[in-house]
Write a structure and sequence with these properties.
The protein has 224 residues and is mainly beta. The protein has one helix at 40-53; strands at residues 19-20, 26-27, 56-58, 66-68, 76-78, 86-88, 91-93, 96-98, 106-113, 116-118, 126-131, 136-138, 146-148, 166-168, 186-188, 201-203, 206-207. The model is unreliable at 209-216 and 219-224 (pLDDT under 50).
């Protein structure tokens, strides 16, 4: 996991970003947060180059950074912190995330198809024009997300949570949503067509099985 070093600025309680040495190696060092780093563009370049030059990235803390128009295909991230970041135009395939943090991060116009993301948190994140199609998104935290014109189609969302999520023009077609929680969501034009809605949880009382029905009716004019 990423280290919880506090920013070296005397009056700051934020976490310091990761330090990359001159040889391009990630080192354990207590430095400054994004706000108090003297040459933020230089540090941003180092972190991007570190990601692009390594297939496996472990314990990286890049909180607050912006990543634009990059290809992270086949990259593997373990225990990394990308909270409060901004991802734009990321065109990636077969990404792997394990125990990573994307809380309150914004994703726009990103393609992350056929990815494998487990035990990862996207709490409070925003997804705008995002494709997760054909991905394994298991045991993840999507609570409080806002999703606009995005697709989770053909994905495995087993035991993930979308509590208090805002879902607009978002598709969950042909997904495995067994034990997936969608309680207290705001929804407009979402689709669960061909997904196993009878095994998902849309109500605090449990899955659709409590109704005695074989399949939960989630249409109510707002979802297909």
């Amino acid at each position: 996991m990423y280290l919880n070093h506090k920013c070296s600025h005397s009056e700051c309680n934020r976490l310091s970003i990761s330090t990359i040495d001159r040889k391009g190696n990630l080192i354990e060092n207590s430095g400054f947060c994004y706000k108090h780093t003297k040459d933020i563009e230089s540090e941003k370049k180092k972190i991007q180059e570190y990601i692009l030059n390594n297939e496996k990235i472990i314990g990286l803390n890049a909180i607050g950074f912006t990543f634009s128009d990059l290809d992270f295909s086949n990259k593997k991230f373990y225990g990394c912190n990308f909270s409060h970041c901004f991802f734009h135009g990321i065109k990636s395939k077969s990404l792997r995330f394990r125990m990573c943090n994307f809380d309150f991060t914004v994703f726009t116009d990103c393609n992350m198809i056929e990815s494998n993301m487990q035990f990862t948190s996207f709490a409070g994140a925003k997804f705008i024009h995002i494709l997760f199609t054909g991905s394994d998104l298991i045991h993840n935290n999507f609570c409080g997300i806002s999703s606009l014109q995005s697709s989770f189609d053909d994905s495995d969302l087993y035991n993930s949570r979308f509590i208090k999520a805002r879902l607009v023009d978002t598709s969950f077609r042909n997904c495995n949503i067994k034990k997936t929680i969608f309680c207290d969501i705001q929804k407009n034009n979402i689709s669960f067509k061909m997904s196993n809605t009878n095994e998902a949880i849309f109500d605090e009382r449990g899955s659709a099985l409590f109704t005695g029905k074989s399949e939960l009716d989630v249409t109510n004019g707002e979802a297909e």
